[in-house]
Amino acid sequence: MRRKRYVLSRLAADDVDDIWEFIAKRNIDAADRVIDELYHAIGKLAEMPQMGHVREDLADRTHRFWPVRDFLIIYHPDTKPLEVVRVLRGARDIPGLL
Q1: Structural domain total, the chain
Q2: 48: number of Cβ within 10 Å
Q3: What is the Cα Rg of the chain in Å?
Q4: Is residue 47 part of a domain?
């Protein structure tokens, strides 16, 4: 039996759905590509969770951040499976949304 490498919080799953829907209004193929990139990055983070960045200006040290295009994958690196907390556009009010 294969163990799950990561889980998305309910908010993170909603974030990914919202990202796809927003981009798909203009281009479905582009939306699919962005979501593929996000999931690929999350898979890599699950393999090497410490490669993300601590951003004390945005959250406490229990969170790490990884950029993909204009988005930030926000996760807890010490969880097994890796817990993705949010996937947000970098320009948003990150501290307010965490």
Answers
A1: 1
A2: 9
A3: 13
A4: yes
